[in-house]
Amino acid sequence: MARTPSFPVIDRSGEPATMGLLLSGGLDSAILLHQLLNHGWQVQPFYVRTGCLWQVGGGGAVRFLLAALKQPLLADLVELELPVDDLYVGHWSITGADVPDRQSSDEAVFLPGRNPLLLIKPVLWCVMHGIAKLALATLSANPFDDAKPDFFERFEAMIAQATGRDVRIVRPFEMLSKRCVMQLGRDVPLELTFSCLAPVASRHCGRCNKCAERAAAFAHLESGDPTPYVEDVA
User: Fold this and answer.
1) Model-level pTM?
2) 51-74 as b/e, with b when 16 or more CB fall inside 10 Å?
3) CA separation (Å) from 16 to 10, 60, 151, 168, 180?
């Protein structure tokens, strides 16, 4: 059995032990939520509604997960509206046409401006409620420029200039592989999570890039994959 990696230490000196967390309903953010709670953080979860296809299942997964992990350190979910259908006109994330399949590369799921779009409302909520840290479950293999350290440094500086307040974008998994993160999530009810680009009646399609990524992630666990895919991923 592989040795479970350690959760990275997050400095909390001189600050309230409250952490905002951007939740998607997927594996990585679910595991990050569990780890933050286990390490004594008061967690304020956020879910941003963009209107993309996968939110048919993602929003429900977030609610199921929060119910399963409910405890005094876990604050009530804040849901924020940021529809992008007028921005991503004709894009597969809205139309469902030509969704990246399970043979596609990670780069195929690129969404223009994804991180700044998802961050802007939660980070401003944090500013207005005195929360100094907002966490993302970005992994080491993320290939996109808006998941790089220099992007987050500039984003933090922009928010500080615009609001006069500092909010740090925390990425505890930034140096970890998917395998390491899944090992950290052994005790999380991962069957409640959702990660599919083109759900079929709120079920994992089994055909898309994210379903293939999900199946590969569960392959790192001896317990196997509990996901009832519509179509066999193999």
Assistant:
1) 0.93
2) ebbbbbbbbebbebbbeebeeebb
3) 13, 30, 25, 13, 28
128-144 per-position pLDDT tens digit: 999 999 999 999 989 99
**Tens digit of each residue's pLDDT (9 = 90 or more) over 103-160:** 999 899 999 999 999 999 999 999 999 999 999 999 998 999 999 999 999 999 999 9
Looking only at Cα atoms, what is the longest distance across the chain?
A: 51
The DSSP code for 41 is: -
Helices and strands of the chain, counted as H and E runs: 7, 5
Helix, strand, coil in percent for the chain, rounding step 5: 35, 10, 50
Please say whether the dihedral angle defined by the alpha carbons of residues 170, 175, 177 and 182, taken in this order, is positive or negative.
Answer: negative
Contact, 182 vs 27, CB < 8 A?
yes
